[in-house]
Amino acid sequence: METKHFQNLIDGKWVPAQSGKTLENRNPADTRELVATFPASDKQDVDAAVAAAKKAFTSWRLVPAPKRAEILYRTGEILTQRKEQYAQDMTREMGKVLAETRGDVQEAIDTAFYMAGEGRRLFGQTTPSELPNKFAMSVRMPVGVCGMIAPWNFPMAIPSWKLFPALVCGNTCVIKPAEDTPLSTYNLVQTLMDAGLPPGVVNIVAGFGPEAGAPLVEHPDVRAVSFTGSSEVGRIVGQTAAGSFKPCSLEMGGKNAMIVMDDANLELALEGALWGAFGTTGQRCTATSRILLHKDVAQTFINRLVERARKLKVGNGLDESMQVGPQISQQQIETSARYVEIAQKEGARLEIGGHRLTGGAYDNGWFFAPTVFSGVKPNMRIAQEEVFGPVVSLIEFSSYDEAIAIANGIQYGLSTAIYTRNVNLAYKAMRDLEAGITYVNAPTIGAEVHLPFGGVKQTGNGHREGGTGALDFYTTWKSVYVDYSDKLQRAQID
Ligand code: NAD
After folding, report:
1. 45 to each of 22, 23, 175, 204, 394, how far by Cα in Å?
2. Which of the 8 DSSP states describes residue 123?
3. Which end of the chain is more exposed for a tag (fewer CB within 10 A), N or C?
4. By three-state DSSP, how is residue 58 classified?
């Protein structure tokens, strides 16, 4: 297949990086395949993109929100037509199995339709004034130019969570996709353009984090920054944004626990564990990376999980019979391997996996065996730190209170789950688990776009994507007072 060479999108035109540098996007299931090349941009390109977005803002903010929404609605329709092609592109650029990349595109479709609906809402408040003949209301105003930095694991869904609410609210955008997965962002933005988005409203600057991401965060004309990625990089982004007080939404890592009580439907919990731990090859911020097992069911669960993990079919995601794809890069399988070593040194029991898969087609990609550790203690590094690979830790507990303490005893707070048939315990867990998301009788993955998405503690800084939380980030409140008394009225005095 002929290699495509993509360029940056600035002011509606495709332009190379001013330095002429490029980066390669390779298929992690077969690194011999060069999917495409993209610009390796730097500050000059970011400056040009921000200038284009700033210019476009002067007119885009005045387009009525229901009209902006119509473009999103058309985007959802076109994405629906192109779903299969975009899913194939995504599997080639990042490895997830086709069923999952179809889901990723579907998430962008759902977000398009949901946010299109917001074009006729974007509700503010009207409220009585304390003074006679005076009208009071609050309205949502766009923020201006928004800078967006995305990770590689949901390469279309996450950009859609950022772009679509920003657009319906009247903002213009500069997005820097992850260096490993720019193609899906290009497909998304191409669809927006085909749906009628005016030039300059969305600009793409492809490249690496320090060269292309950092100048975007630093740029004085970027009025808000939305970042999804690791806590390590999020800290840098947040500190930079704080320097100029610009709003900054940080969605970061997780170490998500699934609690299996002694009364749980074990078969259901097993299904959930396999999907939560090994879906997306464990490379989800919400991946089930700790399974907390009541001691009375622990051994049965461990035996059955290992047996099921052994049967998982790992391979190229374009093959419909595969259940688990490759990891994104050599660096990620090295991280998985390093954590296997750490866990073994700490005394955890390796039940299955723990190594890179080799031989035949495996040699051309970054495949890691589904890995299960039992006998994990809550304070081990393998139970505390995000691996971002197909590695799950099993921890035993004796009581509900102990399970909650273990689940909460980490620096992250993204997603959690409890399997129980006891309705009282389920409600207690909904209250007690320190996390942005709690599932009952479902694994830690599976968010829907119209609910708030994000976490507490070191997972996030209080903002939410999805749901109306996204509108709160991409708008600022303006309070408007209209005095129709024809005289000076003094609040708090008259
Ligand atoms: P990463 O932090 O390495 O990179 C994320 C993005 O930041 C990339 O686009 C990268 O180029 C950019 N970047 C890197 N250095 C930068 C810098 N100095 N300044 C500005 N930008 C910079 O993360 P990743 O490996 O792409 O993604 C995996 C991480 O993302 C995991 O920790 C995962 O939990 C997290 N994640 C979180 C969510 C969530 O919503 N909470 C969703 C998906 C992934």
Report:
1. 13, 15, 12, 10, 47
2. -
3. N
4. helix
- Mutate which of 185, 228, 239, 416 for ligand 1 pocket (most atoms within 8 A of beta carbon): 228
Query: Over 80: is that where the pLDDT of 108 sits?
Result: yes
339-394 pLDDT, tens per residue?
Answer: 999 999 999 999 999 999 999 999 999 999 999 999 999 999 999 999 999 999 99
Q: How does pLDDT run across 388-441, given as a tens digit for each residue?
A: 999 999 999 999 999 999 999 999 999 999 999 999 999 999 999 999 999 999
Q: Whose C-alpha lies nearest to ligand 1, atom 30?
A: 229
For residue 401, the number of C-alpha atoms closer than 13 Å in the C-beta half-sphere is 0
Please tell me if the CB atom of residue 456 comes closer than 6 angstroms to any atom of ligand 1: no
Residue extents of the structural domains in the chain: 4-252+460-479, 256-440
The pair phi, psi for residue 200, each rounded to 5°, is: 85, -15
Q: Please give the CATH topology (third level) of the domain spanning 256-440.
A: Aldehyde Dehydrogenase; Chain A, domain 2 (3.40.309)
Q: Is the CB of 196 under 6 A from ligand 1?
A: no
pTM: 0.97
CATH superfamily of this structure's domain 4-252+460-479: Aldehyde Dehydrogenase; Chain A, domain 1 (3.40.605.10)
